Amino acid sequence: MTYQNFSLKQLQEIDGAHHLHPFTDHKDLRAAGTRIITRADGPFIYDSEGNELLDGMAGLWCVNVGYGRHELAEAAYAQMKELPYYNSFFRCSTPTPVLLSRKLAEIAPAGVKQVFYGSSGSESNDTALRLVRHYWALEGKPEKTIIVSRRSAYHGSTVAGASLGGMAAMHSQLGAPVPGIVHAMAPYAFELSLPGESEHDFGVRAARSVEDAILEAGPQNVAAFIGEPVMGAGGVKIPPASYWPEIQRICRKYDVLLMLDEVITGYGRTGAWFAAQSMGIEPDTITTAKALTSGYQPLSALLVGDRIASTVIEKGGEFYHGYTYSGHPVACAVALANLEIIEKEGLIERVRDDTGPYFRKSLMERLAGHGIVGEVRTIGLMGAIEIVKDKETRERFPGDGAAAVVVRDHAIANGMMLRATGDTMILSPPLIWTRSTIDMAADRIAKALDLAEADLRK
Ligand code: PMP
C-alpha cells in the first residue's frame, strides 16, 4: 500500500481519525487539517500537493546533513541485512555501537570518553539524571540529589525531561514532577535585562541566580546544574559571553556537576562538534541526539566525562537503567556514516568560518531593521527573530505569541518553513546551507514579515 493512492483530503481524514500528534491542540489540528510532507531533497521539503519549502528548521533541529543522503540509507540497509538488532545488555554488544563510542570519544571535549545510548534526547536526559544521582551515591554523598535547571529550558517530554525543563505549560500538566529539581532564571537578556544593564552584567546576574538556587537548597544537597548551551525550543536564547564562565566557576565552587544538554547544539550547529568546545565549557555529562544521525534514525548518546565514568567503573555495582534500543546497531551504523559525511564535507568548519558569519550578516542586514523585529540574534547556524509591536519599547503584539504564528504562516505560504515559539521566530537550518540558500531564506522571511506587519497593524 502506498500513500500515492490517497488524496490529501483522505490522508487528513485518516490522520484526524487515528493520529494524536505531539505538542498539538488536537481539536485545532482537525479544524486546520494536517500538512503532509511526502519527500525531501537537499535543503528542501515537499508536501503532498507538490509545494516546495526551504526547511529552515532542519526537520526539528536534526537533519544537519540535509535530505536525500543515500549513504545513510545504504548504511542502514547493509546493517539491517547483516544484523538488524541485538541488545547490549548481559555482557553483549554489536560492532557499530562499539565503533561509534570510540568515534564520539574522539570528537568530544577533552576528558569525555564514555557513552550511554538511548533513542531520544528525553531518554538520554533521564539517563543523565539517574547517572548523576548514582554517582553521588557511589561517592558516599547520597544526599546530593537536587538538580538546578532554568525556567524556559527544554529537556524533553518524558516525566523526567519535562521536570528538568522549565516550561510552565508542561509543568501545569505534569501532576507530580520528579522531586528534587529547582529552576533558576533564564539567561534571556532581551526580556529580562534591567534598564541600562550591560550584556556582561546581565550574564553574570543570570548565572548568580543559579548560585542563589544552590545556596537555597544547600550545596551539600545539590548534585548538578543542567543547561542547554543555547536554549533552543525556548526561543534560541543565546547567553552573554560572561554567563558560562560564571556558571562553571559556581559549579566548581560548590562541587556541583555540570550537565550540558546539547541535543540541539551538538554535532556542528554552533561551528564546533559541541558548543562546549565553541563556548569553552567543561561539562561532566553531555546529552546529545538529533544530529547524531541527522534524524535518519532515532538515536541519542549521553557522553559521560571522566569524573563520573571513573567512579562508576572503579566502584562497580550495577546501574539499574537502560533501554531495549540502547546502542541499536542500525541507528549506530547510520550515526557513523553521518559523522563521516560531516567530517568529509567540512560542514563544521564551513559553519564556523563561512556560512555562520554570513547567516548573521544576512539576517542582521535584511531583517533586524524591520518594523516588527525587536532583535535578531544568531550563533553558528541557529537564529532567532523577536517579533514586537514597538521596536523601541519592545512591547509585544497582543495574543501571547499569536503574532509570530501570523509571520510563520506567511513564511510557509512563501516557501519558507520556520518555527514560532512564543513571540520568537526560530531558525536552525541544515548545515549544508550555502550563501545563496541563506539569501533565499532572508528574502522569504523579509517578505513574510512585510505581509505579517500589514495584517497585524490592520
Ligand atoms: N533536550 C533538548 C535541548 C531538546 O531540544 C530536545 C528536543 N527538542 C530534547 C532534549 C528532547 O529530545 P527528544 O524530543 O528526542 O526526546
TrEMBL record:
Family matches, as InterPro entries: Aminotrans_3 (IPR005814), PyrdxlP-dep_Trfase (IPR015424), PyrdxlP-dep_Trfase_major (IPR015421), PyrdxlP-dep_Trfase_small (IPR015422)
Sample GO molecular function, one term: transaminase activity
Coiled coil start-end: none
One Pfam family cited in the UniProt record for this chain: Aminotran_3
Keywords in alphabetical order: Aminotransferase, Pyridoxal phosphate, Transferase
Similarity field: Belongs to the class-III pyridoxal-phosphate-dependent aminotransferase family.
PANTHER family to which the protein is assigned, alphabetical: AMINOTRANSFERASE, AMINOTRANSFERASE CLASS-III
Name of the protein in question: Aspartate aminotransferase family protein
Organism: Neoaquamicrobium sediminum
